[in-house]
Design brief:
InterPro entries: P-loop_NTPase (IPR027417). By secondary structure, the protein is of the alpha/beta class. It is 48% helix and 11% strand. It has a five-stranded parallel sheet, with helices on both faces. A two-stranded antiparallel sheet has the order 1-2. Strand 1 (14-15) and strand 2 (18-19) form a beta hairpin. It is elongated. It starts with 13 loop residues before the first strand and ends in a 14-residue tail after the last strand. Bound molecules: adenosine-5'-diphosphate, magnesium ion and zinc ion (ZN).
Length: 249
């Protein structure tokens, strides 16, 4: 007679040629997997933020592919899934700064949401307040968006960035076109955001490929000090960009 179920304790659960205990268990695991997939999708939607936030491409970041030197530069508390940690990562373009933060942040949000007992993911979503207010801002895109929406939503958006529980400011300095109007206007928005966050003691995670000296030249010493003091910068050297030929995938 063929074996229907290998688990000895299930032998009383064979019905119509099938083990219903095993079926129940696999249905349960399917439901959990579905729940997790749905939650990841919604977390990414939250960070995507109508395109000014985390890009789809960035959302494919994998923790396993974060270079060791970048991982070392990130505070252990953030690597362990805590969301209320501010820091800066500087270094050349393409070395994996943005992807590292994206991978750890989505993981942190997932852990956070697993610690919270909710009846359903829909319930958690409907009452947004249950999600920590994490805002991802790709700064060059942000400046562009803010400028083209100066009369229509920009002020509200800037307040959102200023008051988020955790703000990611990605690629500071890349928006700068020397001597242009963008420069002063973007700098004054950044100034307001950083000062508000400094006063409210809210953490900011930021990346840049511009040296600290150049950041000071671009945004002024006071703003840079209020960014770096609570959110210390680690500059990563010795890494090659990911997309260079010959670099292991
Ligand atoms: N952890 C990762 N998982 C998957 N792909 C990665 C990862 N880190 C880097 N990459 C690849 O390298 C490219 C550059 O990484 P990125 O984080 O954008 O660099 P940076 O922000 O330092 O300029 C990405 O577009 C991606 O293709
Ligand atoms: Mg980047
Ligand atoms: Zn069974």
């Amino acid at each position: 007679m063929p074996e229907l179920c290998r688990t000895p304790e299930h032998q009383d659960a064979i019905l119509d040629g099938e083990c219903w205990k095993c079926r129940k268990e696999s249905e349960r695991l399917d439901a959990i997997a579905q729940f997790r997939a749905e939650r990841s999708r919604r977390i990414l939607d939250l960070l995507w933020d109508d395109g000014r936030g985390l890009q789809r491409r960035e959302a494919r970041a994998e923790r396993e592919r974060i270079p060791g030197l970048i991982l070392e530069a990130i505070p252990g508390r953030f690597r362990a899934g805590h969301l209320e940690v501010g820091f800066g990562i500087g270094g050349g373009t393409g070395i994996g700064k943005t992807q590292a933060i994206a991978a750890l942040l989505t993981e942190g949000l997932t852990h956070w949401s697993e610690r919270v007992i909710v009846p359903s993911i829909q319930g958690q979503w409907d009452s947004r307040k249950d999600f920590p207010r994490v805002v991802w801002s790709s700064w060059p895109d942000e400046v562009h968006w803010l400028r083209s929406n100066a009369v229509n939503g920009a002020e509200e958006r800037v307040e959102r960035l200023a008051m988020a529980h955790l703000l990611v400011l990605d690629d500071l300095g890349r928006e700068r076109l020397k001597g242009s109007y963008t420069e002063d206007w973007g700098a004054s928005q950044l100034d307001h955001i950083i000062n508000s966050r400094y006063r409210a003691e809210l953490p900011t995670i930021w990346t840049t490929n511009v040296s600290q000296v150049d950041l000071v030249r671009l945004y002024g010493a006071a703003t840079v000090r209020r960014l770096i003091e609570p959110n210390p910068l680690s500059w990563v050297t010795g890494l090659k960009p990911f997309n260079l030929p010959g670099r292991p995938a």
